[in-house]
Each structure stands twice: as structure tokens, then as C-alpha cells.
Specification:
- The protein has 13 helices and 24 strands.
- With 459 residues, it is an alpha/beta fold.
- Helix 1 packs parallel to helix 8, helix 3 packs antiparallel against helix 4 and helix 3 runs parallel beside helix 6.
């Protein structure tokens, strides 16, 4: 076209400024490459604005509420007078705004060219934004994900996690559709706020991707906290009533509450962005790549939530860095999804990395697997915190530890050592001989390793 504005050229052009996209941009400029970053909304994406950061702010407020209620048993006299959602939102918004400002400043300082607007792939080397074409030798697709709604019409009573973060009140009762990470975290926070919560999970258990020992402990803990849940039957319908919502299950059972949170997972944002027209393979909206995240078209890569697998911010960071290193010719190491650390920030928290016991038995053979469970009742710091829970290690006989799982208050902080153990393929004796500081919950990691080695100290 004659009136087409002159295209701006980059070494790397990233479509999407969330965790994966901005990580790819930042690492690429560190290699001396010129980088354009296209973002239609706010830099930081879902994680910063409607995901990880704001939900964890709400969960911290929930933790404070629980501590206020229970403080007298520790000899501290406080009173719990309720939740001021306006103040909780203000606190959450302040955290998000500060992080957003910091990220924006960092990208500017690193000289990443940020292009505001919705981008569309128009050739193997070009992205169009508001009529202007931008070209690059390498294009990285990082357009992220959005909450699935299962076709349900959203309203002020039927909401997703995005709307839940903007509520101006504490709901008296709530039905949570989905007992995975998002559903469990919101159920936990709302219960702490004083909401009567029921979780509906179609699969046989809550957090179905976790190890059976962890699932059992979470369900026991949730029951103790008064969180109701119905597992093993999918819902068929959600309707609004005169004063709330009604959820009907496949077996005819019904549940009613003030609001319904749809937390059945997240779908990829790829529709209408020109991917298929350029020959990129999509499966149910996800971009299919090889193990090195290449799409098979030109020099186009895909990263983050649009690539099948775990939808986690830190997986996005890792894939963004990986692709930047790949483009720079550094042949980075592939990190399998199985070895990416995971944390569910409910109360109690869950952390896991590597194989669950059933997956390990399937992969290596049941007779080749040995496991140990260390009960947090034997851990001094856990007793001080008043938490129940466990650390479970899964090892190959005569070989490395291939899975570490834990549940308990604040146990997510132990994921650092857990992921090093699994990713560095440590043997039980390697970890057992390390010194773990006393009194910390981290000692439970050492105790579990000693037990797996066959020489438990306190077990």
C-alpha cells in the first residue's frame, strides 16, 4: 500500500508484554539485540495485574485475618472485626501499581521499544499494530491466556478471578467451580474473610495434579476449616436466582450461594491474531512448537501460556529467557514441565516439583521407586506456627530424588531447595549430609532426605 507507514525493523519482535514476553525482551537486549515489544493492555500481563500478584496480596490479608482470630491461643489479645474490602483492594492496587511502574521503568532503561496496541501477525517477519507494520528477523509470540468461562454468561453474580479481585464486599456465600490452584486459593482466602464456600470439582479430588498424600492432607485441612467440596461430578448448569446463583450437577444435585466463581482453568489468547494464516499449527487454540519452542514457521517462536503445559509465570520467564538464548545462538538447556516448581498459596500451602509417586512408578517402574513422608508434627518451627502437614520425597532406588512435595503453612518457601534437589538430580545422601538450620521448616527437607537415605534422625 502506498500510504503504508514505514516499517520499523528489529532483531527481535515480541508479541505480548506479560511474564514470558517481557522476559524474552529483557534477555534479548542483554545480548545486544534490538527489541520491539507489542502490548495491547498493560505491561506485566495477567500475572501482575489480575493473577499472581493481586491474588497473593488477598491471601496475605486472609492470613492476617486468621492470625487475628486465633491470636489468643498464642497469648496475644486481638479482636477480629471484619474485612474492609475497599482497604484490601487499595493495598492490592498499591502493590500492583508499584510493580508496574518498576517494570515500565526497567524496559525503558534497557531500551526496549514498547509498542502500545493490539498486534497481528501478518507475515513470517511482520506484526501489524494499528495500521503500522513492524518487522524483525525473529518473532516471539507471547499473547498469554484468559479465564475459561465454559460458555457461562458472566454477570455480577457469575464471575471469574478477574472480577473476584474487584469485589467491593465480602460475599456471604460462594460456589467455586474448579478445585485446582485458582479455585483452591480463592476458596481459602474467602473462607478466611468469613465467606461460606463450596467447591465443585468434576475430577475425583481437589488439586488433582498433586501427589495423593498432598491431596489427602489438603482435603482434610479444608474440611477442618469449614470449606465444603463436592468432587467426582461435573456441573451442567449455572443459573441466577432471585438472591444469588444455583449450580446443578450431572447427578441432579444442586447448590445455591450468593455468587459463583468460575475457576475451571485458562485458555490461550490466539484467536484472530493471524497465527494460522501464517502456517502456525494450533490445537484447541494452543500454539504447537517443538521442544525448543520453535513453531516450524520462519524464525517464529512461541512461549508462555499459549504453549501447551503448565500455565505459570515462572515457566513464562524461563521460556522467555530460553528463546532469547536460542536466538543468540547459546543452545540453552530444555527444562521439562515436570521439573518446573509449583506452589499453591492456599492455607495450607502446597509446593511440588518433579514426579508424583504414581507418575514416578509409571515412568520408572513401581519396584524401582522408594518414597518417604516426613510429618511436620516433628518439626519445631511448624509446631510453633501451629501447622500440620508433611514433606514427601520420591526417589529412584540407588538413584536421584525425582520428586519433592510438601503441604503446610508457609511451606511454599521450601520450593527453592526442592527444585534444586530435583533439577540437579541430587541423591538422598547428597541432601542428607547438608546442614539445615534449626529451628526452621527447612529442616523438614533434610529430615525427609535422611529418611529416604535410610538414616532418619528424628523419625
Amino acid at each position: 500500500m502506498a500510504d503504508q507507514p514505514q516499517a520499523q525493523e528489529f532483531d527481535v519482535l515480541v508479541l505480548g508484554g506479560g511474564s514470558a514476553g517481557y522476559a524474552a525482551a529483557l534477555r534479548s537486549v542483554q545480548h545486544g539485540l534490538s527489541v520491539g515489544l507489542v502490548e495491547k493492555s498493560k505491561l506485566g500481563g495477567t500475572c501482575l495485574h489480575t493473577g499472581c500478584i493481586p491474588t497473593k496480596a488477598y491471601l496475605h490479608a486472609a492470613e492476617l485475618a486468621d492470625e487475628a482470630r486465633e491470636s489468643e491461643k498464642y497469648g496475644v489479645k486481638t479482636s477480629f472485626e471484619g474485612i474492609d474490602m475497599a482497604k484490601v483492594r487499595e493495598y492490592k492496587d498499591g502493590i500492583v501499581a508499584g510493580k508496574h511502574k518498576g517494570l515500565t521503568g526497567l524496559l525503558k532503561m534497557r531500551k526496549v521499544t514498547v509498542v502500545e496496541g493490539e498486534g497481528r501477525l501478518v507475515s513470517p517477519t511482520e506484526v501489524e499494530v494499528a495500521g503500522t507494520r513492524y518487522s524483525a528477523q525473529h518473532i516471539v509470540l507471547a499473547t498469554g491466556s484468559t479465564s475459561k468461562t465454559m460458555g457461562l454468561p458472566l454477570s455480577d453474580r457469575i464471575i471469574t478471578s478477574t472480577e473476584a479481585l474487584e469485589l467491593d464486599r465480602v460475599p456471604q456465600s460462594a460456589i467455586v467451580l474448579g478445585g485446582g490452584v485458582i479455585g483452591s486459593e480463592f476458596a481459602s482466602a474467602w473462607t478466611s474473610y468469613g465467606t461460606d464456600v463450596t467447591i465443585i470439582e468434576g475430577l475425583p479430588s481437589l488439586v488433582p495434579n498433586e501427589d495423593p498424600a498432598i491431596i489427602k492432607q489438603l482435603e482434610r485441612s479444608f474440611k477442618k476449616r469449614g470449606i465444603s467440596f463436592n468432587t467426582g461430578t461435573f456441573f451442567t448448569d449455572v443459573t441466577e436466582t432471585a438472591d444469588g446463583v444455583k449450580v446443578t450437577l450431572e447427578d441432579g444435585k444442586t447448590f445455591e450461594a450468593e455468587i459463583c466463581l468460575v475457576a475451571v482453568g485458562r485458555g490461550p489468547v490466539t484467536e484472530g491474531l493471524g497465527f494460522e494464516e501464517q502456517g502456525i499449527t494450533l490445537d484447541r487454540g494452543f500454539v504447537i512448537t517443538d521442544e525448543r519452542l520453535h513453531t516450524g514457521v520462519g524464525n517464529i517462536y512461541a512461549i508462555g501460556d499459549i504453549v501447551p503445559g503448565l500455565q505459570l509465570a515462572h515457566r513464562g520467564y524461563q521460556q522467555g529467557i530460553f528463546v532469547a538464548e536460542e536466538i543468540a545462538g547459546n543452545s540453552p538447556m530444555v527444562v521439562e514441565d515436570i521439573n518446573i516448581p509449583k506452589v499453591t498459596f492456599s492455607e495450607p500451602e502446597i509446593m511440588s516439583v518433579g514426579y508424583t509417586q504414581p507418575k514416578a512408578e509409571e515412568e520408572f517402574g513401581a519396584d524401582q521407586i522408594e518414597v518417604t513422608e516426613y510429618n511436620l508434627a516433628g518439626n519445631g518451627k511448624s509446631s510453633i506456627l501451629g501447622t500440620a502437614g508433611l514433606i514427601k520425597m520420591v526417589g529412584v532406588k540407588g538413584g536421584p530424588i525425582v520428586g519433592v512435595h510438601g503441604i503446610g503453612s508457609r511451606i511454599g518457601e521450601q520450593i527453592g531447595e526442592a527444585q534444586l534437589i530435583v533439577n540437579w538430580e541430587a541423591y538422598p545422601e547428597d541432601v542428607a549430609t547438608l546442614v539445615h538450620a534449626h529451628p526452621t521448616q527447612n529442616e523438614a527437607m533434610g529430615e525427609a532426605a535422611m529418611a529416604l537415605f535410610g538414616h532418619p534422625l528424628h523419625g
